[in-house]
Amino acid sequence: MAMLQVQNLTKTYKGQSSPAIENVSLEIKEGEIMAFLGPNGAGKSTAIKCITGIHPFDAGSVNICGHDLKSDPIGAKMNIGYVSDDHATYENLTGTDYLNFVCNVYRVPVAERKGRIEELAGELELSQALDKQINTYSHGMKQKICIISALVHRPKLWILDEPMTGLDPRSAHVLKELMRKHCAEGNSVFFSSHVLEVVEKLCDRLAIINRGRIIEVMSMDELKGKKEDVSLEEFFLSVTGGENAQEGI
After folding, report:
1. Burial letters for 190-228: b for 16+ Cβ neighbours within 10 Å, e otherwise?
2. Phi first, then psi: what are they for 242, rounded to 5°?
3. What is the mean pLDDT of residues 175-191?
């Protein structure tokens, strides 16, 4: 079963003459971790915001676990857990209040909430901060509360935009383990990243976007077969413009 099917997705921002993304197509299968790579400004965040329903798109389609995003937006979004790149939360709430609010939105049964929150907060070492207001959290703690809020309703598809930013090495390790665990349970993960070493070790497949268009979709095995001993960094630079693409890593 395909967890995510994106067909010919196109988005042009008001006042811009050319699309931010154009004819973007990709598919993520059940149990798969897929990375989304590209230089800065290539269209990664725009594509993710369209896929999650944050931004409207001009053409194409997005289907999440059998739900069309335009005709059945609630059904589609109920199957998504999204971690943005800007820690969008209600910062005057405590961590517990915010997570309970998220549980209300996603209709998590009251009897199950406490256990789920405690389990995730324990794994991410955030338990002691849940009774504090989010506006007192550090950058890394805000990232953790966003990760918990994206998983508390047990979504089929977990989407993350630059999730390693601001995390210490231990927390980054826990996040990678959570990704693996999520997929081992039959779910899927789609995340953008500039940390190519993580992508190389963690992912089953990757998609590379450049100047708003998908230029490569392949498995890690296919990457290895393209050229013996080629690294993902070398391949990424070669397909996105050589040395000029280094700023996107």
Report:
1. bbbbbbbebbbebbbbbbbbbbbbbebeeebeebeeeee
2. 60, -135
3. 96
Q: Is residue 197 located within the same domain as residue 147?
A: no
Amino acid at 66: G
User: Does 222 fall in a domain?
Assistant: yes
Domain housing 215? 1-42+53-64+156-249
Classified as helix, coil or strand, 48 is helix
Selection from 197, 201, 194, 6 nearest residue 85 by Cα? 194
Q: What are phi and psi of 54, to 5 degrees?
A: -75, -40
Q: pLDDT tens digits, residue range 41-54?
A: 999 999 999 999 99
- What pTM value is reported for the model? 0.92
d(Cα 149, Cα 191) in Å, to the nearest integer?
A: 16
